[in-house]
Description:
alpha+beta, Poly(a)-polymerase, middle domain, Beta Polymerase, domain 2, 10-stranded mixed β-sheet, 16 helices, disordered C terminus
Amino acid sequence: xxxxxFRVCLLVITAIVNHPLFFPKENGTVPENTEExxxxxxxxxxxxxxxxxxxxQEIADQEATQKALEKAAVVVEESKEEKxxxxxxxxxxxxVFLLIELWRQDFQEGNWQDIGGEEDDMAVLxxxxxxxxxxxxxxxxxxxxxxxxxxxxxxxxMREMVEGFADDLLEALRSVCNRDADMEVEDCMGVxxxxxxxxxxxxxxxxxxxxxxxxxxxxFRCQTWCSGDSSPPDEQGYGTIKVxxxxxxxxxxxxxxxxxxxxxLCLLHSHVSSARPxxxxxxxxxxxxxQYLDADQVMKWFQIAVTKAWNRxxxxxxxxxxxxxxxxxxxxxxxxxxxxxxxxxxxxxxxxENSDVYFISHFPRSSxxxxxxxxxxxxxxxxxxxxxxxxxxSKTLPANACHVSCLQILSFLHGKQCSLTGPSxxxxxxxxxxxxxxxxxxxxxxxxxxxxxxxxQDMLKFLEKCLHEKKLYHFFIGNGKVPAELGFPIIFQRAxxxxxxxxxxxxxxxxxxxxxxxHEMLRNMSALINEYTVHIPLAHxxxxxxx
Length: 547
C-alpha cells in the first residue's frame, strides 16, 4: 500500500510541474502551435486523471482483500479453538462412557443370575400393578380348567400323527437324494411349546428340527461368536459353518497362508487338491466363492428335496401337502379333503460338535430372521436343552406343580392382548425365559399347585423388572449354574451373558409398543380371564396380595 501512495504522489507532482500555468506568460515565448500543445496537455491531463482513478481503485481492492484475509484468519483460528474444545469434550465423554460400561459389565457378571434377593425387588417394583384387579385362586383354577385343559387335550394325538408322517417323508427324502453328492438327513426331533406341553393358542403347530451333514469326504467345522475373537454386538448368538474336507486340518496348512514359490511343493497338499472349484463349493450349498454354508441355499435345497419326497409317497395318503408360508421355507400344511388342516414346521439344522446345541437356518414365525447379519451367520438354538431342563426340574417339584400352568396362562393373556392391539416385540420365548429363571431361583415347594396365583404374580413382576431395565438374559448363555446332569457345553456357560432385550435398546418404537402392550395386558387381565370363566361370586375376587 505505501508503494501505491508514492506512485500517486509522483503522478500529482509531475502533473503540476508540467501544467502550462506553472510558467508565467511574461517569462516565455508562446510557440506558434499553441492550440495543438494545449490539446495535447488536456489529453495528457485526462489520461493522468484516469490513471489516478485506476490506482485508487486498485488500492481500495487491496485494502478489501487484506481485510478479508484478516477476517478469514480470525475465523480459522476460532474454528481451531472450537475444534480443540470439541475434541476435549468428546474424549471426556468417551472416557466416562467406557467407565460406566466397565462398571455395568462387572455388575452384571456378579449379579445377573443372582435372583435370590428377588423379594426386595418385588417390593420396589410392581408400579404397573397399582389399581389392577388380580384374579384369585378360584377364578384362575376355573379359567385354567375351562380354557386351557379344555383345548389342549388333542395335542398328544396331533404330535404323534405329525411325527409319524415326518419320519415317512424324511425316509422318502433320503431315497431321492444322491448319497454321494447331497446332504445326509438324520431323524427329526420335536422342540418348542408343543413338546413342552404349554402351548395354548390355536392353531397348534409342531416344530421339528432335522439335523443334516455333508457327504463324504466333507465335514462341518462350526465356530461360534464366543469361540474366537470378540464379535460385534449384532453377531452375538450367531456362528458360522465352514465346509471342509475331513482330512483337512482345522487350523489349515501353512501352505494356505504363505507363498511357497513356483519351485516348491507342499508335501501334505498337492496343487490340484488345494484348489477347489467354485462350482464344487456351491454344490455343497456354500455362499458364492466361499467355504461357508449359506442358510438360503440350504433352505432352497431342502424345499426341493421335500417336494421330490412328497411326490414319491403322495399316493399313500388321502390328503395334500403344501408349503404354507412364503417367508418360512420349512412351514408345511397338511390339507384333508374334509377341509381341516394341520400345520407343522420342518427346519434343517446343523449340530454343534457333539452337543445338542444346533445352528438353525431360520426361526419360523419369528422376527429374529430379519436381524441376521448375513446368510452365512446361523443362530444357535438351545431348544433341546430347554426341554430337558424343564423335564429335569419337573421331577423335583410337587405333584401337579403350577409352573407349566403359569406359563400357559401368561402365554394366553399375551396372545389375546396382541390380537386386540397388534403384535409387539414381546414373544412367547421371552415368557418361557422368565419361567426358566424363576424355576432355577425358587425352591421346589414354591411351585405347589395351590401357589399358582403367587407364582403368576412373580412372573409378571419379574417381566416388568426386565422391561424396565431393558435386560432379559438368555437362560443358558453365561449361566454357570446350569445342572451338570444336562451335559451342557462349558464354552457357553463361560460366555458373556446374552441380553435378549438388547435389540429393543436401539429400536425405541418397538420397545415402547412392547411396554404398552404389557401394561394393557395387565389392565385387561381380569376381563380376559372372566370372559372364559364360569360365574364366580364377586367376593372371591380381590386385588394383589403378598404371599
